[in-house]
Design brief:
Shape: elongated
Order of helices and strands: HHHHHHHHHHHHHHHHH
Radius of gyration: 26 Å
Length: 296
Amino acid sequence: MILLRKIIDNGLWPERLTYNILVDGFCREGQLDMGFRLLKLVDSLYFVSDQFAYTTLIDRLSKDGKLDQVNGLLGFMMKKGIHPDEVTFTEIINLYCKNRRIENAVTVLDTTLSSKILTLTGSHIFNLLIDAFSKDMKFGLAYAMIAKMLKCCVTPSVVTYTTLIDGFCQTGDINRSLEVFELMKRCNWAPNVYTYTVLVNGYCQPGTLEEAVKLLNTMYDSGVSPNVITYTILIKAYVKSGDMEHAFEILNDMVKNKCQPNFETFSALLEGLVLSKNVTDGSLTVFKELGSSHVD
């Protein structure tokens, strides 16, 4: 910084790129104060800092979880007529959502849309807010966000629908989850393994395990291969219900379909065997599978 000041005092004017590289370097080293000092120096000289310098600082502040400073710098930046790109806005909204400050996230989105400084090309930003509303069980606001998406000519994606399905499943409202699932298919979106896994998890409650297995068969019929998470969720559910026979049937299906069991899968089975006091034969089977699968 001292060297830079000497260069300027000697009448040499570094290019904008030089300042941006320095700001980026300070941020990478966690020296935010130096980054801000350099930003002020640039603004006090002969040109205004560009988008890169501001977004670099916002990125560092976001990673450090400094929400209020992010908000202040964003406002200051926009007053100068410098607008962040979609990636930066996404990161800011994600930060607010993670910290349960959804109102701030919505404000940032609304400011972006109303000022027409950014044309959103994908559903990711909206999906972050839909997920946040769903986790807070504010499904009316989640649906309102979908309406806002459509108004902006952004089409809901598989992730959008799966996020809503998961939200309803987490509250135990499997019927509403299925409504969204059917809507998704009517809109010509094919459910993927994550969509099905979310629904399988929703069905893995006492009295609905048979429906979860039916859904597993639907996956097979639809050409969607269950993953280790799908199978392990079912195995855990059967273990919890004390039905070790069906738990091992799922394991056999898993191996037959060339899906590698992991440590969590075997841990669930071993726990079930211990609780059911059926350790001898069953445990040997598990350890054989464990050895042949090279599970860490």
